Each structure stands twice: as structure tokens, then as C-alpha cells.
């Protein structure tokens, strides 16, 4: 059975995406920022399901009913992160102001030769912080993804900087997973997103904004199998070109008996859900899961 987020079609035009990229790199940031307004309006008007999901989430995080203005801001923030990704992938990261807290956590694990599992979310910009880690900090990061739900967008970024896509591992391709243990033993980092589940038999039900929601068990399973600690990372859009990134230790590898694994996994993922909720409240318009996250499938 497909998950809700896999059923959301890609509503993008290759022509307009390439136009925005050209304007961003040739004509300047001010003009590309202006173009984000009509593009955002288009997607707000013509994406009913995503618009409803946005309003539902904003109602939970803001604690009040939300109208078109709040939904527009939600979409517009997402558009800003896509624009900034163009600059980062094109080697123009100096245009952005990225403040990072907790980077010493990664340094410690990388220098120890142990590595760690980075667990992020569709909150702010996962890709920007991955690019910073590889291009500016020299960390060797492999990113685990479930597939390309937005192939046109991904294709444009791949052309801008193919090197950033060399260490992407697509989950489901067994051959590509070979070598992760060696990567871990060499002190490499493995990044994945923890706020979308794929298979019903590998999910954990956690409390999220006061309601039950499904989270994947994959981060805990990989932590146990690869014997790697878990570190959360969130990169929040602050303002025009400004981002705040946080790295925090989440949990050590669960070394428990078979009959205690389920309890340990639920505890770790609940702690992750708690931290995700905390950062969602810090930046309410930064969470980009435009589908019914709380739907009981």
C-alpha cells in the first residue's frame, strides 16, 4: 500500500524551475524573490489536498484557526528554501547566512572513527545542511532516501552539483546498501529523515502535537545494526537567506535483548518526535509535509 506522501503528485513545471534557476544565478536574488510570490499563489490555489494539510498542521502548531495568509506563508517559506538550495548547490553558499550549533557533536564522532546516524526531518532545509557538511566541513555523509518524489526538482539540483548526489543511497536497492557498515567503521556519517514512514510493519506510533502519528522504525534499526549513535539535526529557515541549524545527541545504540527492542525503539522515536515538535514550534512555517500526517492508515 502506498503511503500518503508517495501519492502526492509533483506539481512543478520544468520550464519555470529552469527559469527561476537562470534568474537566480544570472539576474540576482531580488528578482528571483519577486517571482516566488506568483508561483506560491499558483500552488496555494491549485493544490487542494496539500492546502488542507497545511491548514491542519498550522492549526495544531499555532493553536488557532488559520486562513489563506498563514497557508501562503507556509508555501512561501518552502519556496524560499528551494531558491536557497540553488545557490548552495551552485557553489554560492556565501549568499546565505547559516548559523550552526552543536557541530562539535559531529566532530567528536567523526574523529573517534565511530561515526553517527543523523536523523533529520522535512523541516527547513535538509539539503542545505547536507551540502554544508560536505562542502564546508569536510564530513563524509551518505544520505539514505526512499526515492525521488520530485524528480524534476532533483534533476535540476543534480545538474548544478553532481558531486552532492554521489553519496545518495536509495532505500530498496539492496545492492546500494552494501558497504554502509564499512562506511560506519571509517567514521562516516549516515543521514536519513525520520518523519516519513513507508512500510506498515516497520512503523512506530508516537504522540505528536497531542495526537498519535506514525514514525519509521528505520533510524533505530540502523543504529542497532551498525552500532552507531543517533544525532538529530534540523536546519530552520530564519529569514531571507538566513538559517539556524542544530545538532543534538538523541540516543546511543540500543543494546537490549530481543524482547526489549520494541520498547527501546518506541522510547527513542518518541524522544525524536518530541524534539521535532519543539523545533516545529520554533519555526511553524518550516515543516514541509504537505499531506495528512496524522491519518490512520
UniProtKB/TrEMBL annotation:
GO terms for molecular function: acyltransferase activity. CDD domains: LPLAT_LABLAT-like. Pfam families: Lip_A_acyltrans. It is found in: Cell inner membrane. GO terms for cellular component: plasma membrane. The chain crosses the membrane at residues 30-50. Its main location: membrane. One of its GO terms (biological process) is glycolipid biosynthetic process. InterPro entries: Ac_Trasf (IPR014548), LipA_acyltrans (IPR004960). It comes from the Bacteria. Keywords: Acyltransferase, Cell inner membrane, Cell membrane, Membrane, Transferase, Transmembrane, Transmembrane helix. PANTHER family: LIPID A BIOSYNTHESIS LAUROYL ACYLTRANSFERASE (PTHR30606), LIPID A BIOSYNTHESIS LAUROYLTRANSFERASE (PTHR30606:SF9). This is Lipid A biosynthesis acyltransferase.
